[in-house]
């Protein structure tokens, strides 16, 4: 077993959890499906590719800088309808996290997380923080981001990603069957199928070293 750590830092991030039509939401922290998606892009896997090895990894997030919720009132002109017979104006509300910083991590089979770590150093396809309008401002790849530690100790030992002094405690969410929080972001097949199930998550607070 091994743990992969990656930095998710950018002016904007958006991690949709239950987006429907004109309302494109974002969760308050990165989702497992979203981060697996960017890793699959780094590996060069098509949306129809098998991702069962990635889905089996245990996921966790440390919230260094939660960021602020930002709404973009978005208008698109001359959108062609599904039948191709008319053009409409489509209005949507798109939500983002502004100025947020997170450490994300995956724990699991060493060969799998090692391959993911290498792919983040030289991604096959461009990497975005949830949407194509959200490029990262620092590399996701950390040379020291592959460790034999388990997920929680590895997360606690990461350097603080915010500016100034770190808070006394940082919020950590880690996948845990006994956890009390539920997240509907567990892929149930290739991303092209757009099928997701629930997973249980535990919440802890750790000191930043």
Could you tell me the CATH topology label: Alpha-Beta Plaits
> Ranges with pLDDT <50 over ≥5 residues?
none
> Mean pLDDT, nearest integer?
91
Placed side by side, the strands forming the largest sheet appear as 8-1-7-4-9-11-10
Backbone structural class: alpha+beta
- What gyration radius follows from the Cα positions, in whole Å? 18 Å
What is the helix fraction of residues, given as a range?
10-25%
Count of DSSP E strands? 11
Q: How large a portion of the residues is in β-strands, by DSSP E? A: 35-45%
Q: What is the total number of structural domains?
A: 1
CATH class: Alpha Beta
Written account of the structure:
There is one protein chain. The protein has 209 residues and is α+β, with helices and mostly antiparallel strands. The protein has one domain: Alpha-Beta Plaits (2-Layer Sandwich). 16% of the residues lie in helices and 38% in strands. The chain is built from four helices and eleven strands, in the order βββααββββαβαβββ. The chain has helices at residues 32-43, 52-55, 110-121, 151-156, and strands at residues 2-9, 12-13, 23-24, 58-65, 68-80, 87-98, 101-108, 146-147, 170-175, 181-187, 196-206. It has a seven-stranded antiparallel sheet. Strands 2, 3, 5 and 6 form a four-stranded mixed sheet that branches. Strand 10 and strand 11 form a beta hairpin. The longest helix has 12 residues, at 32-43. It is globular and about 60 Å long.
């Amino acid at each position: 077993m091994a743990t992969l750590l990656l930095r998710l830092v950018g002016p904007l991030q958006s991690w949709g959890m239950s987006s429907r039509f004109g309302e494109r939401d974002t969760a308050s922290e990165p989702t497992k499906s979203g981060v697996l998606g960017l890793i699959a892009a780094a590996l060069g896997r098509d949306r129809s590719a098998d991702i069962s090895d990635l889905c089996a990894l245990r996921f966790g997030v440390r919230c260094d800088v939660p960021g602020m919720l930002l709404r973009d009132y978005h208008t698109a002109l001359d959108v062609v309808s599904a039948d191709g017979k008319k053009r409409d104006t489509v209005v949507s509300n798109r939500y983002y996290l502004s100025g947020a910083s997170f450490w994300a991590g995956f724990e699991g089979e060493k060969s799998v997380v090692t391959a993911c770590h290498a792919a983040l150093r030289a991604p096959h396809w461009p990497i975005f923080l949830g949407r194509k309008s959200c490029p990262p401002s620092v590399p996701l790849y950390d040379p020291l981001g592959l460790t034999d530690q388990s997920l929680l100790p590895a997360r606690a030992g990461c350097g603080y990603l915010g500016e100034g002094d770190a808070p006394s405690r940082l919020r950590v969410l880690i996948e845990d069957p006994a956890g009390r929080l539920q997240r509907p972001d567990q892929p149930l097949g290739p991303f092209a199928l757009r099928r997701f199930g629930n997973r249980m998550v535990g919440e802890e607070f750790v000191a930043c070293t």
